[in-house]
């Protein structure tokens, strides 16, 4: 997934590593706690996927950072209600563009448990909706119209 935002790569990067700011762009992300800056965090993610309401307390580890262009994170957690286990690896890159910056997000998601029975189509729709909402919020945060 990718998007072009009307911000310099430097400004976009500053926003990406400002965890309280960037977490406000993530739908359903709450209670973000910094354990060690650019190393580890805790957060709760709440979503409705199909008939399930999920609430996942997650541990987020920053696996690598190449300033000012790339960060890789790994998030793991278990839904409080269904017991579904989630693991997500995100590779996020900032690429200079003529009109600002291109943000690319490569996500690898592993879902085990009741939520996995919903099927890939339902889950992918929710991921796509969340990415669209993230894009809208990020552009608003960066002052784009």
UniProtKB/TrEMBL annotation:
SUPFAM superfamilies: Bet v1-like. It holds the Pfam family COXG. This is Carbon monoxide dehydrogenase subunit G. It comes from Bradyrhizobium canariense. The lineage of its organism: Bacteria, Pseudomonadati, Pseudomonadota, Alphaproteobacteria, Hyphomicrobiales.
């Amino acid at each position: 997934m990718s998007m072009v935002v009307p911000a310099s790569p430097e400004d976009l990067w500053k926003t990406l590593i400002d965890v309280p700011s960037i977490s406000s762009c993530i739908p359903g992300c709450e209670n973000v706690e910094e354990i060690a800056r650019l190393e580890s965090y805790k957060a709760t993610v709440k979503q409705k996927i199909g008939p399930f309401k999920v609430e996942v307390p997650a541990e987020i580890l920053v696996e690598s950072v190449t300033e000012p262009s790339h960060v890789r994170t790994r998030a793991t957690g278990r839904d409080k209600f269904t017991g579904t286990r989630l693991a997500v690896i995100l590779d996020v890159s900032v690429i200079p563009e003529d009109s600002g910056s291109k943000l690319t997000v490569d996500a690898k998601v592993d879902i085990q448990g009741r939520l996995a029975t919903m099927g890939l189509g339902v889950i992918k729709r929710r991921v796509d909706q969340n990415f669209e909402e993230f894009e809208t919020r990020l552009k608003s945060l960066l002052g784009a119209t």
